[in-house]
Specification:
The complex is a heterodimer of chains A (217) and B (114). Chain A has 217 residues and is of the alpha+beta class. In chain A, 68% of the residues lie in helices and 9% in strands. With 114 residues, chain B is mainly alpha-helical. Chain B is rod-shaped and about 150 Å long. The chains are: A alpha+beta (217), B mainly alpha (114). Chains A and B meet through α1, α2, α4 and α5 of A and α1 of B.
Chain lengths: 217, 114
């Protein structure tokens, strides 16, 4: 027989005791249910916050990553174009190197004398005739005899409409071919050497040369 | 039937005992509730730490993906460069003579000879 179930405890007192225990259990249940609600809320909030944080961070990381990929791709594109441009320049450079080689060979041909005179005539006419000095390389001096210079001077005089005399400068140049023509007072000079003409062509006709070499880009 | 004094004392003891038990039940429930809450907070704290680890891992994965993409673009550009360079070289080889002739003609073509 349990304590409290002795005959000394009345039925009504036992009922009160049971009621006290039942109320206590109900209150305990409420406490636990409330705690469960709170813990569920804490866990749900944490989970939700964590998921949102991961999503937000993932979006931010992906956006940044995409930016980096775009920037690097653009840099690689620019780098590729720069390398191709350098390659084209190399090829053009090689062509100009061959031009110099062929022109050097050309100066050994009989036709060169005519070209040299034409180049001098062109420069002299551009200067408007007058007393002019002509600088050529040591080898080309032989091509410009007194007679040849006089004939050339007459041609220039006719074209420029100005009395013209041409004389060889005492100084010689190191050019492959062509001449530097100056007024004797040194006020004006036209460089019509092969090298200077090549340089001008390279500067002014780059697009045409590249179009011939590589086609329309 | 009227009770004697001992019986009343016995009933009061009984009721006090019931109250003690009730108090224990409630206190135990409170302790359990506190424990549940503490565990939930610990779990939340662990979740935050795990979350940081997930984000670090994700960051590495995304960085690797980006590196792969950049590598692929670099390879693509390198291939394009090689292909374009070959085309340029081939065209230039085919047309070098024409370019050479064009330049030499311009060098030699003084206005007086035109």
């Amino acid at each position: 027989m349990r304590w409290g179930e002795t005959e000394e405890i009345s039925e009504s007192t036992r009922k009160i005791g049971n009621r006290i225990l039942r109320d206590a259990r109900e209150q305990a249940d409420k406490i636990l249910q409330e705690a469960k609600k709170k813990t569920d809320a804490v866990i749900d909030d944490t989970k939700k916050t964590a998921e949102e944080a991961v999503l937000a961070e993932e979006k931010s990381l992906r956006d940044r990553s995409e930016e980096i990929v775009k920037r690097r791709s653009a840099e690689l594109e620019v780098d590729e174009q720069r390398r191709l441009m350098n390659f084209r320049s190399e090829i053009v450079g090689e062509v100009f190197k061959k031009v110099l080689e062929q022109l050097e060979e050309y100066t050994e041909t009989p036709e060169y004398a005519t070209t040299l005179k034409a180049l001098i005539g062109e420069a002299a006419s551009t200067l408007g005739g007058g007393k002019l000095a002509i600088q050529v390389n040591s080898k080309d001096r032989k091509l410009l005899t007194r007679k040849a210079l006089e004939e050339l001077a007459d041609e220039v005089q006719e074209r420029a409409g100005n009395e013209t005399s041409l004389e060889l400068s005492k100084e010689t140049g190191g050019q492959i071919g062509g001449a530097i023509v100056s007024t004797v007072d040194g006020a004006a000079t036209i460089d019509n050497t092969f090298e200077a003409r090549i340089e001008r062509i390279r500067e002014n006709n780059q697009l045409e040369i590249e179009t011939i070499l590589f086609g329309q880009s | 039937m009227p009770k004697n004094f001992e019986a009343l004392v016995e009933e009061l003891r009984f009721l006090r005992k019931m109250e003690e038990e009730a108090k224990n039940i409630i206190e135990q429930a409170q302790r359990e509730a506190e424990k549940m809450l503490r565990e939930a907070e610990e779990r939340a704290s662990r979740t935050s730490a795990e979350n940081e680890a997930i984000i670090r891992k994700l960051a590495l994965e995304i960085k690797d993906e980006a590196d792969e993409k950049v590598k692929a673009v670099a390879k693509e550009k390198e291939d394009e460069f090689s292909e374009e360079r070959s085309k340029l070289q081939k065209r230039a080889d085919e047309r070098a003579d024409e370019a050479l002739k064009y330049i030499i003609n311009r060098v030699l073509r003084a206005s007086s000879t035109e």
